[in-house]
Specification:
The chain is 0% helix and 64% strand. It is an all-beta fold. The strands form two sheets. Strands 1-2-5-8-7-6 form a six-stranded antiparallel beta barrel. A hairpin with a 2-residue loop joins strand 6 and strand 7.
């Protein structure tokens, strides 16, 4: 059951008020998705503990998504790790993600 609305954002260039090119994230699509949370892990990043929270979103099959995009859901941001047509039937795709702070993305 697809009961969550997720926003897919694409990394893009836009012009600011001074007509200069600025790299930013822009809204790409809003999709209905189901969500499942996998078991998280902990590790060390720059000598600091870091928790990895894997999440999978499942949406209807589409070909216009890629791993250079990110997902915004419920005020949180998710880095897309992989996009997979799990059964090869072109009905649904599974988007594997990890939760990241908004400022963790290279913009």
């Amino acid at each position: 059951m697809r009961r969550y609305q997720i926003e897919v954002e694409a990394y893009t260039e836009a012009r600011d008020a001074n007509s200069e090119l600025v790299k930013t994230w822009a809204h790409f699509k809003t999709l209905w998705a189901s969500k499942s949370i996998a078991k998280g892990t902990e590790g060390m990043v720059n000598d600091k503990p870091d928790a990895v929270r894997p999440v999978e979103f499942e949406v209807r099959y589409r070909e216009d998504l890629n791993e250079m995009m990110r997902i915004k859901w419920n005020g949180k941001y998710f880095e897309i790790i992989s996009i997979n047509d799990r059964w090869g039937l072109r009905k649904y795709i599974t988007i594997a993600c990890t939760e990241r702070p908004e400022n963790a993305f290279n913009v």
